[in-house]
Structures are given as C-alpha cells and as structure tokens.
Amino acid sequence: SMESIGVLMMCPMSSYLENELQKRFNLIRFWNFQEKSVFLETHRNSIGAVVGNASTGADAELINDLPKLEIISSFSVGIDKIDLGKCKEKGIRVTNTPDVLTEDVADVAISLILTLLRRLCECDRYVRSGKWKYGDFQLTTKFSGKSVGILGLGRIGTAIAKRAEAFSCPVSYYSRRVKPDLGYKYYPTVVELAQNSDILVVACPLTDETRHIVNRNVMDALGAKGVLINIGRGPHVDEQELVNALTEGRLGGAALDVFEQEPHVPEELFGLQNVVLLPHVGSGTVETENAMADLVVANLEAHFAGESLLTPVV
C-alpha cells in the first residue's frame, strides 16, 4: 500500500495539499526538524518522494542524502529549485503543475499593469485618508493601446498576450524560438523588445540563461516612460540595477510579484510611488491552489502505481 511510502514535504505550502498527502502516504514535514542530521538518521531510508515548491525544492545534497528517492513532485510550474541534472543522473522523476495556474498568473500580470499605470493603490489610500475632500486625484496613464512586450511566450506569456489584445495593445515578444503561428511581432533580442515596448512583461522560466536577463541595458532601452512587470521569478531582474533605474528616473515604473531574495524586498522600493509590490501571489487563489495540489498528488499516485506521470519534466 502507498501508506508506507515516505513523502517529504519541504515547507508549509498548502493545508489542503498537506491533508491530501497525509490521507494517502506517510507524510514527513521537513520543517518540524531542527536538525537535518537527526531527520536523516530517522527517515533517510523511508523517503520515496519529495514535494517542493517555487521557493524550496531539492538540491544535489538532499538528493544524494535520500537513497530511496524516486520522484520529486513540485507544487509549482517553475522547477529552478530542483537539481535536474542530478535527477537525470540518478533516474529520479520530476513533475510540476503547469496549465492549472496559467489563467491566474496572466490575470495578475494585467492587474499589475492597470494598478501601476492607473495608480490604483494610491487612489485607494487617497480615499481612505480623507484627502479626496480637498481635491481630485492627479491624472494617471492609460493602459489600452499601449505596446506590450512579453519576455517568454510560453503558456503564461501567451495568456497575457491574449488579454493584452483585448485592451487593443500591440503585442510583441522575445523567446528562444520564433512562434509564427501566434502572429505577434518577434524581436531577436530583449533590448530590441524593450526599445519597442511601453510595457515589458517578464514571463519566462528561470534558467542560467535567463538569470538577470533584465539588466541595466534592458531597463535603459525601456526608458523613463516604460514600465517593467515581473510575474516570472525574482532573479530574472537585476534587482540592484532596478532600484538604481527607478531612483534615478531612468525607468518609468515597475510592478513586481517576485523578488530575488523572497520574502526580502529592497527597502529602497518602499518609498517609491511608481512601484507596485505583491508577495508572490500570482497563482494564489483557492481554486488554483487546490488544482495544483490535486496534480501533485495525482503525479505521486501515478508514479507509485506504475502508471504514466501526468505532467513529467524529467
């Protein structure tokens, strides 16, 4: 039976997922152990699966420490916190949760654009603080019709493009491969994409190639009237350069759901009016959390039943 299979959950991520795992497997909560060595002594040989997420996965050291590990099922689309090379080497399967969170993340990308350009957070504070009685809020910037550049035209990037089209925005993109069937304008470099965009949206996976893909040159190409939206991963953007560009007025604004050192956010951003800061909530709806959790569990059940994985990465 599956009840004897040890499943190591790396950190608290969803109480629904925790309960579903506990019903089916021998669930071991990594965060309950102060000493990793004590944990390993007790559980090293009973763990067949690891469940990670966008912030905590499985590095080479952990993988080497667990001789019976067969599968890592990630409660996320991004798998940059898993050592995929080590998994391939040891024949360990890896799954993630694509598709089910696409719509939510794309919704948040559009929300960030509107919130930034129309200064909705400030408007809300303006009303609550009683300032409206003394005069109207300042004029803001229109979204409809602005050119939107999307960095990474995968599932999420494409869903953002569709939404931007509904706002009559010309859409262009940069990605590893040209996608002619989608009919958007392709730019061969990120700098050219930024030069030709009012709004640059980061929506690519995090890899060695895409780390700091939004650097000073890209920010300068976007310019003092351009804005940056990041719903990908924090390390896509050189955060110190972003702080510099915003404080020096070389970039018009930024709306961010992700950061390099989550949950730490550069405090220089807190005083700026032209930024919107979210605590990595792109996929954070009840509906999507549960769909992601169901997919994590279904992948584990399929693996241990000898069936095909639903969403294999490795």
TrEMBL record:
Domain D-isomer specific 2-hydroxyacid dehydrogenase catalytic: 11-313
Protein family per UniProt: Belongs to the D-isomer specific 2-hydroxyacid dehydrogenase family.
Cross-referenced InterPro entries: D-isomer_2-hydroxyacid_DH (IPR050223), D-isomer_2_OHA_DH_cat_dom (IPR006139), D-isomer_DH_CS1 (IPR029752), D-isomer_DH_NAD-bd (IPR006140), NAD(P)-bd_dom_sf (IPR036291)
Swiss-Prot/TrEMBL keywords: NAD, Oxidoreductase
CDD domains given in the database record: HPPR (cd12156)
Keyword Secreted: no
Organism: Brassica cretica
Protein name, per record: Hydroxyphenylpyruvate reductase
Source organism superkingdom: Eukaryota
Pfam family, one: 2-Hacid_dh_C
Annotated D-isomer specific 2-hydroxyacid dehydrogenase NAD-binding domain residues: 110-282
